[in-house]
Design brief:
alpha+beta; 11% strand; Aminopeptidase; 25% helix; 6 strands; two-stranded parallel ribbon; 2 domains
Length: 165
């Protein structure tokens, strides 16, 4: 599974034509050349190769690309799951981080992200004592408490958890 859309482009911020797809010093320069679109196209080429060489997987093999990832996926993956569930349901999905490897002290590992694109809604209630706008620091200000919570969340860097999988 991959996406084919990209964020809007501001040509003034580019050193090369964002629509040129030029090869410069062995690298493709252009809008969408990174942000996993290289993986989406590589998956398409691999899928076509498997299909045209007679490969027979033990189960279904699905190539799935959507054009609304940058807009939240509501009309792509979400719509397909709600309306064509059986067509896209899979035991395993390789997506932009699927198969990404890294080296560490014990050798090399392949990362697997579970529900990486899921939403996680949170409600935060902060209480304080109302105060006058001219003296916001002299009261038990709920906004300052909330700002501190957000600052701490923004600075939090969780330790990755590697297990046997």
């Amino acid at each position: 599974m991959g996406h084919t859309d990209v964020v809007p482009v501001n040509e003034a911020g580019w050193d090369h034509d964002p629509f040129g797809a030029e090869i410069i010093d062995g690298e493709v320069w252009g809008r969408g050349a990174i942000d996993m679109l290289n993986l989406t196209s590589s998956m398409a080429v691999a899928f076509k190769n498997l299909a045209t060489t007679g490969y027979k997987p033990k189960g279904d093999l699905i190539y799935f690309a959507v054009a609304d990832e940058e807009a939240g996926g509501h009309w792509g993956a979400e719509w397909m799951l709600e309306n064509e569930h059986d067509a896209v349901m899979a035991d395993y999905v390789l997506t932009e981080m699927g198969g990404f490897g890294f080296s560490h002290d014990n050798g090399r590992s392949v990362l697997i992200n579970v529900a990486e694109k899921g939403a996680g809604g949170v409600r935060l209630t902060v209480r304080g004592t109302p105060g006058h706008g001219s003296m916001p620091l002299s009261a038990d200000n709920a906004l300052l408490k909330a700002a501190e919570v957000l600052r701490r969340l923004g600075g939090h860097r969780p330790t990755p958890q590697l297990d046997d999988l």
